[in-house]
TrEMBL record:
This is Response regulator transcription factor. SMART domains: REC, Trans_reg_C. The modification 4-aspartylphosphate is found at residue 67. The keyword DNA-binding applies. The keyword Phosphoprotein applies. PROSITE patterns: OMPR_PHOB, RESPONSE_REGULATORY. It holds the Pfam family Trans_reg_C. It comes from Hymenobacter ginsengisoli. Residues 141-241 bind DNA. Keywords: DNA-binding, Phosphoprotein, Transcription, Transcription regulation, Two-component regulatory system. It comes from the Bacteria. Residues 18-132 form the Response regulatory domain.
Length: 243
C-alpha cells in the first residue's frame, strides 16, 4: 500500500490548488490545512457557516471542503446559497453525517462529492485531485495579464514575452496575489497570511528569499525590459502598472 499512497500524494502535488476549508472543529481544520499546505497548496479556513459563505463568495477558490454541522448557518444552507449566487466552485462535503439522506441531500444541493468522517487524508487528496482535473474552470480562473506577463490560474502557467517561466508553487501563489492586486502594495503580513497561512515573523527572511527568486525569474532574466516587481520600503511589494 505504500506505493499507492506515494503515487496518490505525488500525483496530487502536480496540481496546485487554492482551497477553502469550512470546518468548526479547530483541531481537524488545522490538521487539514497543514496537510494541504505541506502538499504545496494554499488553504484558508472558515469556522462558521456565514464566514465560509462570505469567503467563498468573495475569493476565487479551486475547491471548497464543507462540513454540514456548522454554527451560524448549516453547511447545506451555505451550499444552497452559493449556488443561488451563481458561484460554481466545486464543493466536497466532509461530514460525520453518514446516512444516505444527508449524502443525497448534499449532492442534490450542488456538491460534487461527499466524504464521510473519519477519513484517510490520502483519500481526501485523491478526491481533490479528481475535482481539480475534471471540473470546469472556477470563477476567477481567467488569465491575469500585466504588460507582457500572463498568468493562467487554471493551467498553472506563467509566461513573459511569450517565454514560459518555471515557478515553484509558492512563487506562483505570490505572483498570483500580486497580479490580483496589480498597482497596489501587498504587505509582508498579507503575503504570510495568504500564501503561507501563518502570522508574519519579523525575524524570518523567507518572504524576502522567495521575492528575490521571483524577481530574478520575472525581471532580471528579461533585462533590459522594464522591471515589474517593485519593493516599497517599509510597506511591502507591488507589480508596477505604469510601464
Amino acid at each position: 500500500m505504500l506505493w499507492l499512497t506515494f503515487w496518490v500524494f505525488t500525483l496530487f502535488l502536480l496540481q496546485f490548488m487554492r482551497i477553502l476549508v469550512v470546518e468548526d472543529e479547530n483541531r481537524l481544520a488545522g490538521f487539514i490545512q497543514q496537510g494541504l499546505v505541506q502538499a504545496g497548496h494554499v488553504a484558508d479556513v472558515a469556522g462558521t457557516g456565514p464566514e465560509g459563505l462570505e469567503r467563498a463568495a468573495t475569493t476565487p477558490y479551486d475547491a471548497i471542503l464543507l462540513d454540514l454541522m456548522l454554527p451560524g448557518q448549516s453547511g447545506l444552507d451555505v451550499l444552497r446559497n452559493l449556488r443561488e449566487f451563481g458561484i460554481s466552485t466545486p464543493v466536497l462535503i466532509v461530514s460525520a453525517l453518514t446516512d444516505s439522506k444527508h449524502v443525497v441531500g448534499g449532492l442534490e444541493a450542488g456538491a460534487v462529492d461527499y466524504l464521510r468522517k473519519p477519513f484517510a487524508f490520502d483519500e481526501l487528496l485523491a478526491r481533490l485531485h479528481i475535482i481539480g482535473r475534471k471540473t470546469a474552470a472556477p470563477a476567477g480562473a481567467e488569465a491575469l495579464r500585466l504588460a507582457d506577463l500572463v498568468l493562467d490560474p487554471l493551467g498553472r502557467a506563467v509566461t513573459r514575452a511569450g517565454k514560459a517561466l518555471s515557478l515553484t508553487n509558492r512563487e506562483f501563489a505570490v505572483l498570483e496575489l500580486l497580479l490580483r492586486n496589480a498597482g497596489r502594495v501587498v504587505s509582508k503580513t498579507r503575503l504570510a497570511e495568504k500564501v503561507w497561512q501563518v502570522d508574519y515573523d519579523m525575524g524570518s527572511n523567507v518572504i524576502e528569499v522567495h521575492i528575490s527568486q521571483l524577481r530574478r525569474k520575472l525581471d532580471r532574466d528579461f533585462a533590459p525590459a522594464p522591471a515589474l516587481l517593485e519593493t516599497v520600503i517599509g510597506q511591502g511589494y507591488r507589480l508596477r502598472t505604469d510601464g
